[in-house]
Amino acid sequence: MSKPASLPSKQQVLDFIQSSDEKVGKREIAREFGIKGAARIPLKALLREMTDEGLIAGSKKKLQKPDELPPVTVVRITGRDEDGEFVATPASWDEEVGPPPRILVAGSRQRSEAAGVGDRVLARIERLNDDTYPYLARPIKKLSTGPRTLLGIYRDRGEDGVIDPVDRKQLKEFRVPRTDRNEAEDGELVRFEMSRSPRYGSGTARIVERLGNPQDQRATSLIAIHAHGIPDVFPQAALEEAEAATPPGMEGREDLRQIPLVTIDPADARDHDDAVWAEADDDPDNKGGHIVMVAIADVSAYVTPGSALDKEARTRGNSVYFPDRVVPMLPERISNDLCSLVEGEPRPCLAVRMVYDAGGHKKSHRFMRGMMRSAASLTYQQAQAAIDGNPDDQTGPLLEPVLKPLWTAYRAMAKARDKRAPLDLDLPERKIKLDDKGEVADIVTPPRLEAHRLIEECMIAANVAAAETLEAESTPLVYRVHDAPSDEKVAALSDFLRTLDISFAKAGVMKPAQFNRILDMTKDTPVADLVQEVVLRSQSQAEYTPGNYGHFGLNLRRYAHFTSPIRRYADLIVHRALIRALGLGSGGLTDAEIERLEETAQQISDTERRAMSAERETVDRLIASFLADRVAPASTARSPA
């Protein structure tokens, strides 16, 4: 009969745990020291005693020395100490063994350009005889990406809690250990990141930000952002590229700084990326004609193909606009600074100079890469008031030399537009006004001004010119296309109009003028807004594609988006295509980009629809919330006579 194995000493248990390359639990300790049967009972008591003394921590399946880290691990930099050194914690930590240890990052003052607070770093770990920092991390490399942050509702469950994600794709809840709850309270909206993926059962998560009451109107857009999977945090590499960007010089650019280009935007515009200018043409062969220039911020000077900024912009596809915030396609350093056409500041641009005859028909156009200086940043209301005879201190000096020539050119261009007869939908825009607390203060429908139409006409003209130039140069591009309505939608519209005693039958090839006739018939009737809405719903959805089939709504054979590369990736592609086609310097469309134009067009069409859905959903919820307190209770409503 074999002699029963004696219990190991506490030091022997600790040595075995530290030397093992695999997971160590009670079963592994018993096997290592030959402990079987009834002898497991005193072993269990020994391990419990070691746990009470703080020598080990964990569960019966996983034991380790408290604060024990592997020799190479991933750490997350959480801040700096009073000496300016980075401090970190393990990027992944099992809460069952206690709170995560604090880690001092070696040489971090010298490495501040390579890593920063919030970054994840692969590091070699050394033990320190220090109560404050039991470990020293020697960085090997900064990791490019970290766990994606998500949004959810925190639910308190006593010792631990759980998070219900708002993202529809995240079907499982995440468990939140007590040490990772960040003092969140039950029912709060929180931003969190996964610390363990939920492959089996629930995953675990750490709360990185508390966002308050999910019923708060300011949370509505945040919920929509995450519910639709819209990226709202820029990768560190993209932010670093944006911060390092510097304005280009004059080399290879035309000097447009003496031309009084002006920006005309909404009063609450967050960026200013397009400017306009016009003057009478002094060419004796073009009497009554005009020269119109549209200048657009040269985003391609900063966002180059294949860069971190470019990859993130393509992923986002476009900026997303909410009443209380914007999720930009590019970091603020680019969109609100370097590429914002600030009054009085030189800015690189791509511009098109267009020549029109007296009837508003374009005779010629030419693209150039230039350097401009905005003469003024105006609002639609300012510019319109000046034209209507009420200039202010800013618009007064601009009225004769700048604004009147612009309006004269526009009115000639409008004549040609009216002959072209694009779809004439003029749906009122609902605008939500917020107070200082981010709550809905009012919902208004701003008046539709001639100034709005002027800018739209100039932008459409520049977009057409871009498509025409690229076609002429046989350069691939992404078109903005809009198909004619389907037979099914036309039939549904016809059925609706019959209820209003209006005849609408498809005859031959559909033209926008057929819809305009219906809109004109009902313009001054009580059903005008309803008819406009139904006509809009009968239309196909516009999209991006490298193949051209025209734009039905605008009644144009070719059309591309050129005028807003700050907020639409499609426009950046067109800018690069023009640079390549016309030999305008660096930053042109690459062969690799051309090869995947089909994929890119589908990607940005999808992100546009995602943005529209999130924006519409947010506006609808805010309006419903605003009106909820203004609807009389059912008990007080009068019954019908």
Can you walk me through this structure?
By secondary structure, this protein is of the alpha+beta class. The protein has four domains: 1-66, Orthogonal Bundle (Arc Repressor Mutant, subunit A), CATH 1.10.10; 72-143, Nucleic acid-binding proteins (OB fold (Dihydrolipoamide Acetyltransferase, E2P), Beta Barrel), CATH 2.40.50.140; 149-214, Beta Barrel (OB fold (Dihydrolipoamide Acetyltransferase, E2P)), CATH 2.40.50; 236-484 and 540-626, no CATH class. The strands form eight sheets. Strands 3-4-5-7-6 form a five-stranded mixed β-barrel. Helix 4 (219-227) packs antiparallel against helix 16 (597-628), helix 5 (236-244) crosses helix 6 (308-316) and helix 9 packs across helix 10 (450-472). It is elongated. Mean pLDDT is 85; it is low at 109-113 and 635-641. It comes from Methyloligella halotolerans. This is Ribonuclease R. 3'-5' exoribonuclease that releases 5'-nucleoside monophosphates and is involved in maturation of structured RNAs. GO terms for molecular function: exoribonuclease II activity; RNA binding.
